[in-house]
Design goal:
Blueprint (H helix, E strand, L loop, with lengths): L2 H14 L4 H12 L3 H22 L2 H4 L19 E2 L2 E10 L2 E10 L2 E10 L6 H16 L8 E7 L2 E7 L4 E2 H8 L3 H20 L2 E2 L8 E3 L5 E3 L6 E2 L24 H4 L6 H17 L10 H7 L9 H4 L14 H11 L4 H8 L2 H9 L11 H12 L11 H11 L4 H13 L5 H34 L2 H4 L6 H15 L4 H17 L3 H19 L4 H16 L3 H18 L5 H16 L3 H19 L4 H16 L3 H19 L4 H16 L3 H19 L4 H16 L3 H19 L4 H16 L3 H19 L4 H16 L3 H19 L4 H17 L2 H19 L4 H13 L8
Helix pairs in contact: 1-3, 7-9, 7-15, 9-14, 14-15, 16-17, 18-20, 20-21, 21-22, 21-23, 22-23, 23-24, 23-25, 24-25, 25-26, 25-27, 26-27, 27-28, 27-29, 28-29, 29-30, 29-31, 30-31, 31-32, 32-33, 33-34, 33-35, 34-35, 35-36, 35-37, 36-37, 37-38, 38-39
Length: 895
């Protein structure tokens, strides 16, 4: 199709999609004037437009299998019992405009997972449908938030695509609040949760574009779940469709569309703010801010989209607006609405009048630039209202601020009333009263400025990824990161608080993509900004210190990391208390550092304290609790407690896999570490199979050049080496070493550890000289970083002893083996698998020297220790047993 022909089609479509369906056929024939080809192409595209409308007309509750029971189809379903990819279909949950929804399950890695699987009604031979399916996959796969229903899996079965979504139990937000009789404050808290989830999506360059009560579920536990990000527009993402939605393309629900959507303009962050305003409106007064009938395009574009709705306090008692029963009187309906909120109509009107009316209407401004600049800004104003502080949506006069002050200090009502009288009389204020007003003004001004600047930054950063700006080039995560840094430096010079917030976010992103030096630079800049802006004792300064400490851990600079993290912990203790979540995060980072420098007892105590705080404040099934459990599992493995480590990994995965999804980084990292544990347990085949899947997931999600991918590659190489596949292991080890050397430097702990692994591979391939060089480099590097007794330094010494023994340098081999044993006992204690390995090695040396008695005693000590720690069936235990038998030195029958 040439450009001219497409332009003609586009012009015809623009006119026809705005017409009622009954008028389209006659007008199409008239416009085409006998051009058969043009008319055929337009008719074909109109059929897709109609399919697209049906695709997105249904509520997300329908699409996820949450339709009421009476709406579900009856009769046998031939799909039941069959499989879609890894999913077995158990029962039909419902159907929506998008397709049929099934309850399905899959098993693997020790868990059973259920999901709502949507078998979609999309023809994959149609490019538009392919594009929408790919877009839904990309968008949903990147959203990992506790309040967002996540995409678990997607694929194609017999030509039909399907998606597996988190199985959500709940009811639409407003109906759920009404049924539970939640008061206004409880409803506002829930909307703040919604704002947090929407803000998270925006930070991931995604807008929802169809926020409405039916797409926000209230779970039986009273938590929020946002549904149906499948129609979200990925801001600035290059794809098969034009960047600007064509006029008439119904990718929204008309009654909940923002004015810019109705005009066919691009959706942005403030489009979702408008949707949040509509939801807030219904939560407050039980009415829809907009009611439509007839042709939605004409009515909304010409009238409703151009004006604000009445304030919620006024809409409560408007005659003729009863949603559920048009014959009910306004008074009766208002009474029912108020009863659902545990109050009376008059009290509800008074509660809504003022701040809440103002907040709702600011979110619903027809002009996007006059709304709240972000979901976070809306949530912040709700928090100010709940705390009795002035809201940014309302002009801050002296009388208003004084009134808020009175409300905040009800205990001192008499004194506050006197203060209000003084203000009204214009007799001046005392110094402390003036300071209070000044603090309020500065706080409100700072928060308003923050919202504005964050919005401007997000818009500018999203623009950088826009196909028109990128000119066809793919914008990588690191490139987008650097563009973000440049924009912060260039555009936020006069907003240091906002600049610090965004720099810390980019520091975390830099760490996630393996850009550790850049992560540290950004964290240090943010730290200085917060110190200068808020002072050294502000909790936000402590957050920046923790971010700096995390980057230093990744860079292998433990002493500096320790200082930064201890400062953060001390500051959080002073400001928030030792039992706060902020302090728990500090303790967990200190535990990570303890693992790195091989202080297992300290790490154990830090994690246990953090876990106690998290369980108390977050519950037993929170993802942060699971992450803590996974960290404890690493510690147990390092201590040689393999069974305990496996139990902790399985407990963590039982939370992470169903809650965050199989492809979430935390889930995949836990599986990677579980596979490493399987290697230590001698279950090499199981470990190899799991690691290949973990590696494939990391490569698909993160690419080849990412620390998580490279770590999985290293662990796979270890498993292969243990099975005698030294050639493949060596190739993988070399790739791992190249990565760490290039990205973090040759003295980074991971680069040094990889030298140990590669050296073992070279020694197995009869290249002892090359292996010895790598071992010596690893030993010297670990001693410089962590001291003489670090376990990895001991491992390097043990490997050098093995090479000396291979060369029959027996005295040197004995000295090195004894040195390695002493170092291991100093760091690991007497009962550890690595100590058993050194005893076994010393037995080999004694046997080569000819001291059979000494060899037999050392072998027996190694065998008994391995038997107790690893079990009789572990390969290392069996190896010790066989050596004892061959030596003929066993004093009792070995197993």
């Amino acid at each position: 199709m040439d450009a001219d022909h497409w332009q003609r089609i586009s012009r015809v479509l623009d006119e026809l999609v705005a017409l009622p369906e009954a008028e389209r056929a006659a007008r199409l024939t008239e416009i085409c004037g006998g051009d058969v080809a043009l008319q055929a192409d337009v008719e074909r595209l109109l059929s897709h437009e109609e399919a697209a409308a049906s695709l997105f007309d249904g509520d997300a509750a329908d699409l996820l299998g949450l339709a009421p029971e009476h709406e579900r189809e009856e009769g046998p379903d031939p799909m039941l019992g069959s499989r879609l990819g890894a999913w077995r279909l158990l029962s039909r949950l419902g159907r929506g405009g998008m397709g049929v929804v099934y309850l399905a399950e899959r098993t693997g890695d020790g868990f059973v997972q259920q999901a709502a699987v949507k078998l979609l009604r999309i023809e994959l031979d149609d490019p538009a449908s392919q594009a929408r399916f790919r877009r839904e996959q990309r968008i949903l796969a990147r959203l990992e938030h506790p309040a967002i229903a996540r995409l678990i899996d997607a694929g194609v079965a017999e030509g039909r695509p399907y998606v597996a979504m988190e199985l959500v139990e709940g009811e639409p937000l407003v109906a759920g609040c009404d049924r539970r009789g939640l008061g206004i404050e409880e409803r506002l808290r829930l909307l703040q949760e919604v704002c947090a989830a929407v803000g998270y999506a925006h930070r991931n360059l995604v807008v929802h574009r169809d926020l409405k009560p039916a797409n926000i579920l209230l779970t039986p536990e009273g938590r929020i779940k946002l549904l149906d990000f499948g129609i979200a527009r990925l801001l600035g993402e290059e794809g098969d469709e034009p960047a600007v939605t064509r006029r008439g393309e119904r990718l929204f629900t008309p009654a909940y569309a923002a004015p810019e959507q109705l005009r066919g303009e691009p959706a942005g962050v403030t489009t979702d703010v408008y949707g949040l305003g509509l939801v807030l409106y219904e939560l407050l007064c039980g009415r829809r801010a907009r009611r439509i009938a007839g042709d939605w395009r004409e009515e909304l574009v010409e009238t409703a989209a151009l004006a604000l709705p009445p304030p919620p306090s006024s809409a409560l008692s408007m005659a003729g607006e009863a949603d559920d029963d048009p014959s009910a009187t306004a008074a009766a309906t208002a009474a029912a609405i108020a009863a659902d909120r545990r109050t009376t109509p008059e009290r509800l009107r008074r509660r809504l009048a003022g701040d809440l009316d103002t907040i709702a209407l600011m979110a619903l401004r027809p002009e996007p630039e006059r709304r709240y600049g972000s979901a976070e800004a809306l949530a912040a104003d709700l928090e100010r209202h709940l705390g009795g502080h002035p809201v940014t949506a309302r002009p801050a006069g002296a009388l208003y601020r004084a009134h808020k002050l009175v409300l905040r200090h009800r205990v001192g009502l008499a004194a506050a009333a006197a203060l209000l009288a003084v203000l009204l009389a214009g007799l001046g204020t005392t110094a402390w009263q003036a300071q209070e007003r000044q603090r309020e003004a500065r706080r409100a001004e700072r928060e308003a400025q923050t919202a504005h600047e964050v919005t401007a930054f997000l818009v500018s950063l999203f623009t950088a990824a826009d196909p028109a700006a990128a000119q066809g080039a793919e914008v990588s995560a690191r490139e987008l990161l650097e563009q973000g840094v440049a924009r912060i430096e260039g555009e936020l010079g006069r907003a240091p608080a906002v600049k610090a917030d965004l720099l810390l976010t980019l520091s975390e992103i830099a760490e996630r993509v393996g850009h550790y030096e850049r992560s540290l630079e950004l964290a240090e800049t943010a730290l200085e900004l917060r110190r200068s802006r808020f002072g050294p004792e502000d909790p936000s300064t402590a957050d920046a210190l923790r971010r700096k400490g995390s980057a230093l851990i990744q860079l292998g600079r433990p002493e500096e990391a320790e200082r930064a993290l201890q400062q953060a912990l001390a500051l959080h203790e002073r400001q928030l208390g030792r039992d706060s979540l902020a302090a728990a995060s500090d303790l967990e980072q200190l535990a990570v550092l303890a693992f790195q420098i091989e202080q297992p007892e300290r790490g154990d105590a830090l994690l246990a304290e953090a876990l106690e705080t998290r369980r108390r404040l977050q519950g037993n099934r929170h993802a942060d609790v699971a992450r803590n459990l996974a960290q404890q599992a690493v510690l147990r493995r390092q201590q040689g407690e393999l069974a305990a480590a496996e139990a902790l990994y399985q407990e963590a995965l039982a939370i992470l896999a169903p809650d965050l999804g199989a492809h979430h980084p935390d889930t995949v990292i836990a599986r990677n570490n579980l596979a490493a544990l399987l290697v230590h347990q001698g279950r090499f085949v199981d470990a190899t199979d799991l690691l290949r899947r973990v590696l494939a997931t990391h490569r698909r999600v993160h690419g080849d050049d990412h620390p998580l991918t490279v770590t999985a590659q290293n662990n796979l190489a270890v498993a292969l080496f243990k099975q005698g596949q030294a050639d493949e292991a060596e190739e993988l080890f070399r790739g791992v070493l190249d990565f760490w050397t290039e990205t973090a430097g040759s003295d980074h702990p991971n680069a040094l550890a990889t030298r140990l692994n590669l050296g073992a591979s070279l020694r197995a391939d009869d290249r002892p000289e090359a292996a010895a060089v790598l071992y010596a480099e690893a030993r010297d590097g670990f001693e410089r970083l962590f001291g003489r007794d670090h376990p990895h330094a001991a491992a390097a010494v043990s490997q050098l002893a093995a090479i000396a023994l291979d060369r029959a340098e027996l005295e040197r081999a004995r000295r090195l083996a004894e040195d390695a044993l002493a170092r291991r006992r100093a760091s690991r204690g007497d009962r550890h698998p690595e100590v058993a390995a050194s005893l076994q090695q010393l037995g080999d040396v004694a046997r080569a020297i000819g001291d059979v008695e000494r060899a037999g005693e050392l072998y027996r000590q190694a065998w008994e220790l391995r038997r107790d720690l690893l079990g009789e069936e572990h390969p290392d235990t069996r190896a010790s047993s066989l050596v004892l038998e061959a030596l003929g030195a066993a004093r009792r029958e070995p197993p």
